Amino acid sequence: MDSSLNRRLVILGGGAAGILLAMKLASDKQKLGIDITLIDCKPFFEYTPSLISVLYEASDEQFERHFCNITADYETLLGGLGVKFELGIVRDMDNENVILGDGSQKIAYDILVICTGSFYHDPWKVPCQQDRTTMQWQDRLDYLRTHRDKYKSSEDIMCIGGGPVGVEVASEIAWRAPLKHVTLVSSSDTVLSGTPGGVADGAGRILNHLDPIRLLTGEKAEKVDDADDSTYKTDKTNTEIKTDLVYLCTGIRPNTQFLQKSHPNWLDDKKRIRVNEYFQVRGDDSSGGEGNTSNNSKSVFAVGDVNDVNEPKLWFTAHMQTVHLYHNLKRFVEGKNDMVPYSGSQISMVISLGPHYAVGSFNGFVLNGWPFGRNSGSKLAAIAKHTVERVTMNDFHSKKLANDILYQTHEKGHLFQKITGTCLSQR
Ligand SMILES: Cc1cc2nc3c(=O)[nH]c(=O)nc-3n(C[C@H](O)[C@H](O)[C@H](O)COP(=O)(O)OP(=O)(O)OC[C@H]3O[C@@H](n4cnc5c(N)ncnc54)[C@H](O)[C@@H]3O)c2cc1C
Fold first, then answer.
1. What backbone torsions phi and psi does residue 298 show, to the nearest 5 degrees?
2. Among candidates 92, 75, 180, which has minimal Cα distance to 136?
3. Is 279 in a helix, a strand, or coil?
4. Which residue has its alpha carbon closest to ligand 1 atom 19?
5. CB under 8 Å to 4, separation ≥6 — which residues?
6. How many Å apart are CA 218 and CA 220, to the nearest integer?
């Protein structure tokens, strides 16, 4: 086939969703007659879920080694698959082009997949906002090292937010530096609210058994004086918290700044991209459905943290959405009118409680250390967390296969979930 006739498929963002999609589509690009380009604001892939364990590694050498092990150079990774990589911050887009950098660089597309994810409080995500410049691997390592030094020199540390990030940060520090004092403040009555009961209860009990941790639930912490960063008070029990270092572990913000000027109608009130059940961007019409997207948004898709799909924003769900989109994209490119709606996924997740233990839920099955590790957590879940890291970094070329299996067993439109869902509802 004459490659000049190929359609140009452009992927914005090479995080959980973007890199998996590029890897999966790469094997079909000749058959489908597409050229694939992936754009990211940094030249390397970074596995976010392991960053917490990286930052608090036992020694500086281990910190650096572990960071190397969870990052990969896009150019090398994608070049080998025949996927083009472009380094740049996406600033804007029109019906035909993605606009990068200062506006002088344009990348033309026929099909666009937006996987720009979300931003989190420091230091967990590389900033890709419009006012930033691209970040090199060494700069990122230095930046994390500065945060590590801050942690090493702090005695009293506070984490605000009792979600997975707050829980992982507090417990990792408690294990690695048992002489420090860690206060974890959660405005919900439990930590990990929204996860299956056995996971949340287990995590709360285990945190209460970690000596360095003081757990304050059901209230918020606020600064006593705006000019003083070291003293906080909770709003209900007026507990005073002295701190040298605060981690904000609350909420994510979708990376959609580049759409706010030219495509504000694509965004909901939380600035997430509105998509239909095929992950096609909803244009002017908010009612959704394949037929309701405007012409230009029909060939624009969005998956992962950046979209408004109502499920937890996780690496796991970004992967499940991506595998689903991959199958639909093949149908879309081939001009078949049989895209399949996404039914949502049964959630599987693992939350570390230090380097040796974790809690989690796999396809509805809870791992919280019961019965022997009730006060420490599950070793099996910790092994699972490590295994997921290595599979994601594509050790043994297992990433695509592992995600296919997870998708077949977790996406609710598939037989496995239909059977297990029916069995559970009959209990
Ligand atoms: C500390 C931490 C720990 C976590 N742990 C877990 C966990 O254990 N399990 C789990 O399932 N989930 C976890 N998550 C959530 C998970 O990381 C996200 O849900 C997941 O990364 C979302 O994937 P994504 O592909 O949508 O976006 P991302 O992974 O955020 O990728 C977005 C990509 O787009 C790029 N980008 C963004 N904006 C631009 C732009 N304007 N121009 C160019 N490039 C851009 C970014 O550089 C990035 O590479 C964790 C999150 C954090 C912060």
1. -65, -35
2. 75
3. coil
4. 314
5. none
6. 7
CA 2 – ligand 1 centroid, Å: 36
How far apart CA 138 and CA 144 sit, in angstroms, is: 10
| Three-state secondary-structure class, residue 219 | coil
Q: List, for residues 211-262, the tens digit of each pLDDT value.
A: 999 999 999 999 999 999 999 999 999 999 999 999 999 989 999 999 999 9
Quick check: CB of 191 below 6 Å from ligand 1?
A: no
* Ligand 1 atom nearest 45 alpha carbon: 49
Q: Report how far residue 9's alpha carbon sits from residue 36's, in angstroms, rounded to the nearest whole number.
A: 5
Residues whose CB falls within 8 Å of the CB of residue 11, separated by 6 or more in sequence, listed in order: 18, 21, 22, 36, 37, 38, 39, 113, 115
Q: What per-residue confidence (pLDDT) applies to 418?
A: 85
Question: What distance in Å separates the CA atoms of residue 98 and residue 280, rounded to the nearest whole number?
Answer: 17
Ligand 1 binding pocket includes 48 (Cβ within 6 Å):
yes
For the chain, the residue count is 427
Atom from ligand 1 closest to the CA of residue 19: 25
CA angle 385, 389, 392 (to 5 degrees): 130
8 A C-beta contact, residue 95 and residue 136:
no
* Token representation of residue 108: 């033309």
User: What CA–CA distance (Å, rounded) separates 413 from 320?
Assistant: 12
Place of tokens 């001009």: 335
> What domains sit in the chain, N to C, each tagged with a CATH number?
3-137+252-341 (3.50.50.60)
* Distinct helix (H) and strand (E) counts, the chain: 13, 22
* Omega of the bond leading into 123 within 30 degrees of 0 (cis): yes
Is the Cβ atom of 314 under 6 angstroms away from ligand 1? yes
- Residue recorded with tokens 């909770």: 234
The reply to whether the predicted model has a pTM over 0.90 is: yes
